[in-house]
Design brief:
The structure is a single chain. By secondary structure, this protein is of the alpha/beta class. The chain has ten helices and 25 strands. It has a five-stranded parallel beta sheet, with helices on one face. Strands 9-16-10-11-12 form a five-stranded parallel beta sheet. Strands 4-5-6 form a three-stranded antiparallel beta sheet, with no helix packed on it. β5 (about 85-90) and β6 (about 95-100) form a beta hairpin. α1 runs parallel beside α8 (about 290-310) and α1 (about 10-25) packs across α9 (about 350-370). The longest helix is centred in the C-terminal third of the chain and has 20 residues, at about 290-310. The structure holds flavin-adenine dinucleotide.
């Protein structure tokens, strides 16, 4: 009897977990199934580039996982029943239920409209590929001089505004930020950001809480209206509602609460990684939705599952932040170095070197996903029936 591991979602984290498990466990002992709605890997960290008109390298899963032993299942996940240990999926052939022994939930997130009026009707999003492609098509139809307002002064908003302004210098690009521009960055980081925004001619509306979106403008809490032929909404991410509809312990926003090994605190057969999980990081702060923390969390989950199934030592992959890598168009960037718990320190890297650094980080992240079996050689370990059934009793290190 093989131990059935189902990984839901083949984004940055799910794909890493599936590949790493295939590398660590004997093929005859496990059946690893990776379920994803789309047939190719989506580099979400490049969605602003896609929206601005750049073409991304196609990365079909059928090539990435060929010969790994991971079975790909192209289907949309519609529900999880943690009592019966089944996943409901649907594809062109209809609905089906898949049974698991261990489940890894990695369905990521989408945009977060935050219930602001008019967002669903009028705003564009770049948290997903369909959203980015829709914006790309709309931007291509804009005439010179028309306005694009990016709402959200976080990392995604900064990257989107600069990418669009660089690609379309004929447009009038603005950013509406809740606080000051890059106010969490170091003084040098903030200064560099202002310089680049100035060079690209981006208008910055600081301390602007957007309260409504209309077809041709956004309204702010202080009663102002900012003209916007196109509004791009980037105020954080929201998880898909599937986990919230289960008996799993989730946060108010629907993230699955996990321990230090990324295992559900309520259901020991379930692990969650990436944007879908609520895990505590350094400084007892929740890890933020990012590849930066999602990648080591995925390593931790895979290694913990493998250890529990084979009787190995539970891993303790350090999850900490090193820097925030912000692209500011293709020619400029800002690498803000941070403490382990993500607070800016003095040191920054700026300019073209920072742009190259960020590009290498994105390439490295995609390479890691696309080459699941490469890296340091590892011994595939035997799964024992006792371990497979007793695994759920092995406690995480305190
Ligand atoms: C424009 C942009 C720029 C970003 N830049 C950075 C950055 O510079 N650094 C950084 O660390 N982070 C960045 N992020 C955040 C980062 O992309 C996410 O945190 C990361 O992708 C989360 O990984 P994940 O595996 O949890 O989810 P995802 O990468 O979103 O993967 C989820 C997968 O699940 C699939 N899926 C979803 N629902 C279903 C379903 N119902 N059925 C089947 N399959 C489903 C999706 O198709 C996808 O393949 C950026 C995000 C955006 C949008």
């Amino acid at each position: 009897m093989q131990h059935r591991i189902i990984v839901l979602g083949a984004g940055y984290t799910g794909a890493i977990v599936a590949g790493r498990l295939a590398k660590r466990l004997r093929r005859e002992d496990v059946a690893i199934t990776l379920v994803n709605a789309e047939p190719d890997f989506v580099e979400r960290v490049r969605m602003h580039q896609l929206a601005a008109g750049q073409d991304l390298t196609p990365r079909p899963f059928s090539e990435m996982f060929a010969g790994t032993g991971v079975e790909l299942r192209l289907a949309k996940v519609t529900g999880v029943d943690v009592g019966r240990k089944t996943v409901a999926v649907i594809d062109a052939n209809g609905a089906e239920e898949l049974a698991y022994d261990t489940l890894v939930y990695a369905l990521g997130s989408g945009w977060n409209a935050q219930d602001v009026s008019g967002t669903a009707e009028h705003a564009y999003e770049i948290a997903s590929r369909p959203g980015a492609l829709r914006l790309r098509e709309r931007l291509a139809r804009l005439d010179a001089g028309q306005t694009v307002v990016v709402v959200g002064g976080g990392l995604t908003g900064l990257e989107a505004a600069t990418e669009i302004a660089e690609a379309r210098p004929d447009l009038d690009v603005a950013l509406a930020a809740h606080g000051g521009l890059g106010d969490w960055l170091s003084p040098k980081g903030r200064e560099h950001l202002r310089k680049v925004f100035g060079k690209l001619g981006i208008t910055v509306h600081e301390h602007a809480a957007v309260t409504g979106v209309e077809a041709d403008r956004v309204a702010t809490a202080d009663g102002k209206a900012i003209p916007a032929a196109v509004t791009v909404w980037t105020t954080g991410f929201a998880v898909h509602p599937i986990a919230k509809a289960t008996a799993l312990e989730v946060t108010g926003t629907g993230q699955i609460v996990v321990d230090g090994t990324m295992r559900s605190v309520s259901h020991p057969d379930v692990y969650a990684v990436g944007d879908a999980a609520m895990a505590m990081g350094p400084g007892d702060k929740p890890l933020r939705m990012s590849c930066a923390s999602g990648t080591p969390a995925a390593w931790q989950a895979a290694d913990a599952i493998a250890a529990r199934l084979t009787g190995g030592k539970l891993p303790n992959v350090p999850i900490r932040y090193f820097n925030q890598c912000i692209s500011l168009g293709r020619k400029e960037g800002l690498i803000q170095y941070v403490t382990a718990d993500d607070r800016a320190v003095q040191a920054v890297l700026t300019g073209r070197l920072a742009a190259v650094y960020k590009e290498l980080v994105c390439k490295g992240a995609a390479w890691g996903v696309a080459n699941p079996m490469l890296g340091l050689p590892t011994r595939r370990r035997r799964v024992t029936r006792e371990r497979a059934t007793a695994g759920s009793a092995v406690k995480a290190p305190a």
